[in-house]
Amino acid sequence: MSKMSELSQVLDELISCGEKLIKLAKAIRECFTPDTAIEETRPVVEAKPVAKAEIPAPPSYSKEDIRGMLAAKASEENGRYKSDVKAIVKKYGNGGTLTDIPAESYPELVKELEGLSDG
Fold first, then answer.
1. DSSP string over 8-23
2. Whole-angstrom Cα distance, residue 40 to residue 104?
3. How far is CA 43 from the centre of its chain?
4. What's the pLDDT at 5?
5. What is the spatial distance between Cα 53 and Cα 83, in angstroms, rounded to a whole number?
6. Closest Cα partner for 110 from 76, 60, 75?
7. How far apart are CA 70 and CA 89, in angstroms?
8. Are 117 and 69 in contact (CB under 8 A)?
């Protein structure tokens, strides 16, 4: 078979596939096109209200909780994280002590503290 006749055969098959795709697309469109005779026989389904997902409040920590977490992390693995803990306390408390850290920053501090063991 020559290259031209082979190409011609492939093109004919491609045209045939295209025509079949057009027929299929039209059949799908007819399934979703509203038809008054069909619409009348369909049961009416009322929409139910969807409950909004509640966003959980961030956990609240006391100063004692934070102090315990900082101490535990600083002494973990023979003091491996001691300097990191000091840096975190300094970052969140301008004076570098726990008393200088506002309670609103506790969740962020805990998240960063927990991230120490990940890295």
1. HHHHHHHHHHHHHHHH
2. 59
3. 36
4. 86
5. 40
6. 60
7. 9
8. no
Return the closest-CA partner of residue 116 out of 90, 81, 91: 81
Angle at 25 between CA 24 and CA 28, to 5 degrees: 85
Write out the two tokens for 62: 């006391």
State phi, psi for 94 to the nearest 5 degrees: -55, -30
Give the lowest-confidence range in 23-27, 59-63, 115-119: 115-119
- For the chain, the residue count is 119
Nearest to 110 by CA among 15, 55, 101: 101
> Do 118 and 75 form a contact (C-beta atoms < 8 A)?
no
pLDDT, tens digit, for every residue of 77-115? 888 999 999 999 999 888 778 888 998 899 999 999 988
The answer to whether 67 and 73 are in contact (CB under 8 A) is no
Q: Hunting for tokens 């994280």 — which residue is that?
A: 81
pLDDT-based confidence at residue 7 (cuts at 50, 70, 90): confident
